[in-house]
Amino acid sequence: MTDDILRTRLNQETSRIAWKELLRFFAGGSVIAVGGELDLLEVAVHISNDDKEQIEQWLDQEKIGKVSDEQARTWLETGAEVWAVVVKPWILVQSV
Question: For residue 49, what are the domain limits?
Fold first, then answer.
């Protein structure tokens, strides 16, 4: 699958969702936060393509990472919605 086709498919699968709907996935450790300076779809494409070098760079720069307990609590307390897209086994989320 080309990156353009993948990007289009992922874009169609991206949606806003209430954070509380993702709590069970957060509890399972499968939710990755994507910083606001990054494009959620571009990160999803790189993860789908298993681009280890780019992913490691983002991890080292703390631009992506597992959602912290503090962030999860804040989102829950404020009734936040996030942008989300599934790239198995991960759910990528970004603040709205």
Answer: 3-95
